[in-house]
Design goal:
The complex is a heterodimer of chains A (117) and B (141). Chain A has 117 residues and is an alpha/beta fold. Helix content of chain A is 34%, strand content 18%. In chain A, strands 1-5-4-3-2 form a 5-stranded mixed β-sheet, sandwiched between helices. With 141 residues, chain B is an alpha+beta fold. Classes of the chains: A alpha/beta (117), B alpha+beta (141). The A-B interface holds A 32-36, 38-39, 41, 49, 51, 53-56, 58-59, 61-64, 79, 116-117 and B 17-18, 20-21, 24-25, 28, 38, 42, 45-46, 49-50, 53, 103, 105-112, 114-115, 118-119.
Chain lengths: 117, 141
């Protein structure tokens, strides 16, 4: 799925990374616990979260994730936006809640991820 | 044992949760410059990142050494924190002693040590209550 489709499915606003919306993502992970995110790994994934702090972007960076979607109208901070830009990451925000946002992406064809090892 | 081709050293600041992970970011960059396989880079940086976060949450910071050999990468983490009373328990997924304020920051789910083990080929923990914890993780190349 292209990041552009994620934006459309979730009525999301692009916070940064407008020029990378044609990038593909192949898996997704929805969590507010970063260690749970770090337990799963797959290439070119998108992270859905309601958590807002710099460690969210750093977690995504460690996982080589290409896009973060902030659910339930959470606003990323300037510091997070700068970090995301440095790493060429797309940040989206949506007013949908986690359950609905994940459901829409799953139904749209973006299925889950696999456990490492 | 052969000498490490590249040795990196970091002080992990225990005061600042926001900057936690900076050493891991640096390691990731260095490994990329060395042309290491991206899957290996991810393993090393995730294991180190979890270790760094642990040192910040539990131990008031510490030191990290990353040694790159021909056949492996070693990550050594040393702190002078409270130590781990029961390593077996601490290795169980979901078991955590992190305070609630850490959980609200997205960590303390009891996945840190299990994740470090998950992403490395070998992990040794040497911890003394009241003195500190020393961890050596190895990722084979």
């Amino acid at each position: 799925m292209k990041i552009r489709q994620i934006k459309e499915l979730l009525d999301a606003v692009v916070v940064c990374g407008d020029d990378s919306l044609e990038k593909h993502v192949y898996s997704a992970c929805g969590s507010d616990m970063m260690s749970d995110v770090l337990a799963y790994v797959k290439d070119q994934a998108v992270l859905l979260t309601g958590l807002v702090n710099t460690q969210v972007v750093r977690t995504a960076e460690m996982m080589d994730m290409v896009c973060i979607v902030f659910v339930r109208s959470k606003e990323p901070t300037q510091e997070m936006i700068s970090l995301a830009k440095e790493n060429g990451m797309v940040l989206l925000k949506t007013n949908k809640r986690m359950y609905e946002a994940c459901g829409k992406l799953y139904a749209g064809g973006l299925v889950g991820n696999k456990t490492a090892k | 044992m052969s000498e490490a081709a590249v040795a990196l050293h970091f002080n992990v600041d225990g005061e600042d949760f926001t900057s936690a992970g900076q050493a891991s970011v640096q390691v990731k960059k260095s490994l990329r410059q060395l042309g290491i396989d991206s899957e290996i880079i991810r393993k090393v940086s995730i294991a180190m990142y979890e270790g760094e976060i642990n040192m910040v949450i539990h131990a008031g910071g510490g030191e990290a050494h990353v040694l790159i050999y021909e056949d492996r990468i070693e990550i050594k983490l040393d702190d002078h924190g409270p130590g781990i009373a029961n390593i077996e328990m601490a290795m169980q997924e979901g078991w955590s002693t992190a305070p609630d304020n850490i959980r609200s920051l997205g960590f303390g789910a009891g996945m840190g040590l299990p994740n470090m083990k998950r992403y490395t080929d070998d992990m040794k923990i040497d911890s003394v209550v009241g003195e500190g914890t020393h961890i050596v993780m190895t990722v084979n190349l």
